[in-house]
Specification:
This protein is an alpha/beta fold and 398 residues long. It has two domains: 5-142, 2-Layer Sandwich (Nucleotidyltransferase, domain 5); 176-380, Nucleotidyltransferase, domain 5, CATH 3.30.420.40. Helix content is 37%, strand content 17%. It is built from 15 helices and 13 strands. It has helices at 59-72, 102-110, 119-132, 152-155, 161-167, 176-190, 243-249, 255-264, 267-272, 278-286, 290-310, 324-329, 331-339, 350-354, 380-392, and strands at 4-10, 15-21, 26-33, 41-44, 51-52, 82-87, 98-99, 138-142, 199-204, 208-214, 217-221, 319-323, 373-375. An eight-stranded mixed β-sheet has the order 5-4-3-2-1-6-8-7. The protein has a five-stranded mixed β-sheet with strand order 11-10-9-12-13, sandwiched between helices. Strand 4 and strand 5 (51-52) form a beta hairpin. The relative contact order is 0.11. ATP binds at residues 16, 203-207, 277-279, 325-329. Its cofactor is Mg(2+); Mn(2+).
Amino acid sequence: MEDTVLVVNCGSSSLKLALFNNQHRKLLSALAERLGQNDAFAHIDGQEGTIPLDAGAGHDQALDTLVTAFRDLGLMTTAPSAIGHRVVHGGETFHEAVLIDGDVLKAIESCAGLAPLHNPVNLSGIRATLAQFPGVPQTAVFDTAFHQTLPRRAFLYALPEAWYRDWGVRRYGFHGTSHAFMAAETARLLGKTPATTSVISAHLGNGCSITAIRDGISVDTSMGLTPLEGLVMGTRSGDVDPGLFDFLSGKGFAADEVHRILNQESGLLGLSGQTNDMRSLCELADHGHEPSQTAIDVFCFRLARYIGAMMASLSHLDALVFTGGIGENSARIRAETINHLKLMGFELSPDLNNHHGEFSDGRIESPDSRFPVLVIPTNEELVIAREASRLAGSVAPA
């Protein structure tokens, strides 16, 4: 049986697993959802039906159930040779992926105040796999690590300096594994090296962020101290006037309630009053639902405005790249966004934009466009698997 690498991605109520072989080809993936609820269940891609979980099942039971299913399918007869975990926030402590030990666990926990909805559940997944696979090298891959190259002018807020010095209040950025993959893959498709390639990478899904990558490194990004800052997202507001908190306190809103609404009831959902799913919004807009069209308009305009802002951090631009569920699949969103950027010289080919999946290089710009525009499927799991393999190889056999 060949060596395998297990990739673990824990959400607040979900657990995603992916199993790769030693050539980094995905063998299997699975998802457990509604963890902590009475109707928790799991599903393995390519398999019929769902796997029921106990009422209130947590990440540890979901992991045990899915690992057992992987073994029953004959793809995991031995322990994996390495395990990689997605960890959302590494603060300023982690500039790259690291092997997990006791000190790393403590440091991840110390960043929980910066990502209270994410780091605690990431730790749950790590502890569950440590119990399930003792002795297997495990790696933490941080969403924030790729952005640790941001210059001070890009990561500092115009706030009292002591807030940064004492509490770490600064812009960190997220979706780093996706943006790092975009930088490398764009360079490959353009026949360049990452160190000579400058890209604006737009990761658009339920969470959205955009990053300016100059010569292979992140130099500006839209998300900040938390994943709430920046673009309009599925349920997150993106940028708002901080004075909103004071205004709403006068209306009787508590700070934690405003925080919940900005994270869970705003964005596309808040604007449309219907859904955070872009496909559904487009269908509703086509049937004359004005709030859905407004949500699309705001989303595209804010995205275009951020694309323009990212140009300030670059000396040249090799490509604008779209990725993520919306970025990869919505020709409409790409077209409406680029329509705001004609002054900068961006122009799409309608045919290529609508049929980019039929072309291996992902190019969708017209011959008259000043800059290349690409659509590239992201692969964060592959990045994590590669990092886990690399670091596990540095561990001497016992």
